[in-house]
Amino acid sequence: MSASGPEFTMSDFLASIAHVVRPGAQRPLVVHDEDLVEIPPGTVPNPTSLRVAGTLPTTTFELFRQVIPAGESSDMQRHHHETVHFVIAGDGHSEIEDEVVSWRTGSFVFTPPWTWHRHYNDSAEHPVEFLTIENSRLLGLFGLGRRESAGLVAMDDLEEK
Questions:
Q1: How far apart are CA 62 and CA 157, in angstroms?
Q2: Hey, how many other C-beta atoms are within 10 angstroms of the C-beta on 110?
Q3: Which residues pair with residue 110 across a beta bridge?
Q4: Segments of the chain scoring below 50 in pLDDT
């Protein structure tokens, strides 16, 4: 399995995840920004860009670099895993179930398990950039991973909460 470049495939990467992940040539201790693997456009039902640090030898959590373009948002979604977004750059707000919270560069945004949520970039000029950390690998080891998207709807537009 290739760690990056045209030979890298997400299916090979996912198949390589085992209960014990040891560092090595394919699972290095350091992954550089240029080595992050972009999740193919259209895979995520929103205009954000997601790049995964998937070759790190983590067993229980996953790391992503996420960009929300100016004036855009993520989709309304919920999932079984916990997520923390560290705001690298930008400011915006999030709908998390019945709460609306504001955040800015340097903030940490927590999304509890199985809560509807959506993140908004409040700038009309600059993108928002997150370091996204989630414990999805841990839940995946137990076969408990689940994710749903309601698309680009607001909390008030959800048919079922």
A1: 30
A2: 13
A3: 84
A4: 161
- Of 119, 124, 125, the residue nearest 107 (C-alpha): 119
The predicted pLDDT at position 115 comes to: 96
Task: Give the whole-angstrom CA distance, residue 135 versus residue 67.
Answer: 20
Question: In the structure encoding, which two tokens stand for residue 144, read together?
Answer: 């408990």
State the Cα–Cα distance between residues 80 and 147, nearest whole angstrom. Answer: 7
User: DSSP state, 105?
Assistant: T
Token representation of residue 12: 């090979």
Give the whole-angstrom CA distance, residue 84 versus residue 18. Answer: 24
**Domain ranges across the chain:** 10-157
Q: Does domain 10-157 have CATH number 2.60.120.10?
A: yes
